[in-house]
Amino acid sequence: MEAIAFYTFAILTTVMFLITVLTSHALYALSALAAGMIFISAFFFLLGADFLGAIQIIVYTGAVMALYAFGMMFFDTTRDVVEKRTSPQLIFGLSGVAALMVVAIFTAPIISGNIEALYPAIDGVGNSQMVGMVLFTKYLIPFEVAAIMLLVAMIAGIVLAGKKMDHSLTLMQDEIECINEEKEQV
Amino acid sequence: MMEITLQHYMILSVVLFAIGLIGVMRRKNLLMLFFATEILLNAVNIAFAAIGSYYGDMTGQMFAFFIIAIAASEVAVGLGLLVLWYKRTGKIDLDAMTSMRG
Amino acid sequence: MELYLYTALFAPIVGSLFAALFGMSKKNIIAGLVPSALLFVSWLASLKLLIYILGGGEAIHVELMTWMATGDLYVPYGFIVDQVSVTMMMVVTTVSTVVHVYSIGYMDHDKGFNRFFAWLSAFVFSMMVLVMSDNFLGLFIGWEGVGVCSWGLIGFWYHKEVATWAANEAFIMNRIADLAMLIGIFLVYWNTGSIQYEQAFAAMPGLDTAVLTSMGIFLFIGAMGKSAQFPLHTWLADAMEGPTPVSALIHAATMVTAGVYLVVRANPLYDLIPDVGLFIASLGAFVAMFAATMALVNRDMKRIIAYSTLSQLGYMFVAAGLGAYWVALFHLMAHAFFKALLFLGAGNVMHAMHDELDPFKMGDLKASMKWTWIFMTLASVALAGIYPLAGFFSKDLILEVSFVEHHYILYTVLLLTAGLTAFYSFRLVALIFHGDDRHSENGVHPHEAYNFMLYAMLPLAILAVVAGMIFKTPYFEMVTQVLPAIEYHIHNHTTFWIMTIGTQVFVIAAIAYAYKKYAKAVKVDKKVESGLLYQLLYNQYFIPQFYEEYFTKTYRELSAMMWKLDMKVVDATVDGVANIFYNTGKATHTMQNGNLSTMLRWMVIGTVVLLALAAAFTFGQSESVVKLLSGLGAI
Asked: Is A156 within the bounds of a domain?
């Protein structure tokens, strides 16, 4: 049962991500990415990390994808960016080699033999509960830092995408003119 | 059916990571680059969750959480910058960004 | 007393630094007056020390501070004022004070006036270090210091190529000798375990004769370089390119006598090895004769005096080599006075003649330069050794020494040389001051030097006259407290008187002959001048040409070969290394094209390489692979 679920979702995820990477349509890519994210959450459920799975769906599919969708509204998505395909052999080759290396390293006995659980899960305690316990005891400071980081990111996003931001605060006036001229020439 | 081991998850993770790498190297559209980055992060997340689960450790999940948080921030800031860039130049082409030419 | 010691030692360097402050600015009379005054202070301090030592005081031995203390080697900045060094100090400070004052007039119109005094005072300081040091290493430092100052002063007019050439020649010749000297010092330390004079000499009697001989020889080679003994003598004549006061101070009175001082200082060593002493004496006699013959025919006033210096140094080495150290030191002192006087007189003549050096273009100067004439004649008489001037007491003593020690060949050579000395000295005097007027046709109107320059020379003139008569007895009593006190008396009175009077007559005859030949209108005897002997002497026995032909040329060819080697091997290697980096940069600069896509690709390649290393480490179970990788710094 677990095996069937794993293989199904593995194939689905791989395909979805391949579409994302290989399609020339931005909208297809976005949709495929969203689907892939949801399929990944399935692995989390399979691994017993229910909370993580839920977060994956909420954050990625809900927040991140929505952000991308809104972001894409700013761009002219109909106009495709010219993709200069410089030697796909190199790209695929490199990726393949990198993947092989990592697999080789992880499957080597030397690594897996030496790992011990730092914060072992306690039997009879639900995953969400467990996450809460670890997160608010051992990882409290990183958690707070992450919260601040998100706040900063939010403000940064607002400021950057804000209306006045096409005027530079740091460039000098003549440099801006220069850029504007370039824009007109284009 | 044979049992699903940690190795299965690792291999899946690596495969997804490789797909992400292909995207990063191949695409010239900045938006697509962001997508590829998301794939990379998710591939790593799977690996973390799987290792944590197989060793009965919560640390893996914790890291996955933080990675998700970082991904979210990255998207917010990155997209903001992207929008700004697009407003300035009207392009989201990677080859157009050559101000760092050495 | 220590205060006087430090005053005597450090006053010159203060003067030098003071003058050096004005080094780059225009001529400033202060830069000449202050060093002269400080030297006078140094002279007073030396005089005070001399009186103290003469009064039977103990030798003053001070250690300023530790210089080196490593393991068994302990070298302090130690200074000693004993009977020998106080004599040297008096000679150095007296002559240098006179020369400083004289130079104020002599260098009056020179652009490098301030620089000159900085060098000159620095020289005096180095010389004081040399004579006052209580160990071989301090002596060596002073030794090198005077070498540097000599280089700077010979090449003082550095825009003249011949002057810079002469400076370099002197410096390089001295380096060759100094290497030997350094080896000698090492030998002393290696075998005696100390380079303090006291301990080293105390340990020497217990050593093997062969070791002592090599020590003595190496130290003497150093002395040969500084005192310009054959075959390292060529630099001294060329050194006359420097200003004349420099020749008077450095190349007549003080620096060149440092070699004699070294032998005198190392007398306990040379006493143990009489064979080396005999060699030194023989070489000295040879050089005395050899230099005197070259002086006979030379046509350069300063070179003639330089050869006479060389000849007199030979005398000193004869005395030192035969164990008559106090005689050598005594002649050193007397010679310093009259030779400096002679040089300063020559400086006056040069000024009057607008730097003309050929005495055949002078003549009949005694009317216009009366005092210079008197001084130079006095100095020449002293040099010739006529009673009762200084030379008689010191030089004839050396003749007596060689006679008493039964070295009759040396005696004969020295006696002949005494005649030659008298001849060439008075040939010079006659050519310059007597005879027909040969300078007016060149449009030269001679004039006497400044009065204060003549006054400055006066003390030297007085000393040249009285030094032998008055100083001999007290000097002997003082200096023999540390040097072997051997009185040289010819026991047979008849022999003594025959010898003394015979020598005097011989010398006077030589003088008379010189006057007869040159004091009238000079006839150039073509037949003699084209003769082989004349040409041999005039060309300094062709030794400079020989050196040029066989040493310099060979060295130059060797250098040319080495240059090619350098270009083809060393330079090529260096260029190759540089080119590798340059070409690598050229080939890889496309990586930095500012394209994000390319950068990402390179990043992935880097990741793959790192992963490969990690994988290699993972699978490198065998020790060797791990070792190799850790050796590469990969892990």
From this structure: yes
Q: Which of B25, B100, B102 sits opposite C600 (nearest CB)?
A: B25
Q: Which two tokens stand for residue C361?
A: 């273009």
Is the Cβ–Cβ distance between B27 and B95 less than 8 Å?
no
The neighbours of chain A, by the rule of 3 or more Cβ pairs under 8 Å, are: B, C
Q: Which domain holds residue A51?
A: 2-125
Mutate to test the interface with B, among C592, C593, C596 (most CBs of B within 10 A): C596
Specify whether A162 is located in the same domain as A91: no
Q: Measured between beta carbons, which residues in chain A are less than 8 angstroms from residue B80?
A: 156-161
The answer as to whether A130 is a domain residue is no
Question: In the numeric block, which tokens belong to residue C494?
Answer: 């008849």
CA distance C102 to C95: 10
pLDDT at position A169: 58
- Smallest Cβ–Cβ distance between B55 and the set A84, A99, A115 belongs to A115
Average pLDDT over chain B, rounded to whole? Answer: 83
Q: What is the pLDDT of residues C543-559, one digit of tens each?
A: 888 888 888 888 899 99
Residues A111 and A177 in one domain: no
Delineate the domains of chain B, giving CATH numbers in brackets. 9-95 (1.10.287.3510)
A113 and A87, same domain (yes or no)? yes
Taking CB atoms and an 8 Å limit, are C597 and B94 in contact across chains?
yes
Locus of tokens 């023989």 = C282
Distance CA B17, CA C454 (A): 102
Q: Which of A10, A150, A183 sits opposite B90 (nearest CB)?
A: A183
* A114-150 confidence digits (pLDDT tens): 556 666 666 667 778 888 888 888 889 999 999 999 9
C604 touches A: beta carbon within 8 Å: yes
**pLDDT tens-place string over residues A8-43:** 999 999 999 999 888 878 888 889 999 999 999 999
Model-wide pTM > 0.90: no
Lowest mean pLDDT among A121-135, C320-334, C408-422: A121-135
| ipTM tops the 0.90 cut | no
Q: Does C596 touch chain A (CB under 8 A)?
A: no
- Chain C residues at the B interface, defined by Cβ less than 8 Å, are 589, 592-597, 600-601, 604
- Domain count of the fold of chain A: 2
Would you say C570 and C577 are in contact if contact means Cβ atoms under 8 Å apart? no
C-alpha to C-alpha distances, C335 to C95, C129, C349, nearest whole angstrom: 11, 21, 21
**Domain-located, residue A133:** no
Asked if B82 is an interface residue toward chain C (Cβ–Cβ < 8 A), one would say no
Helix runs in A47-168, H state only: 50-55, 65-74, 88-107, 109-112, 127-135, 140-161
Q: What is the pLDDT of residues C467-500, one digit of tens each?
A: 888 888 888 888 888 888 777 777 777 888 888 8
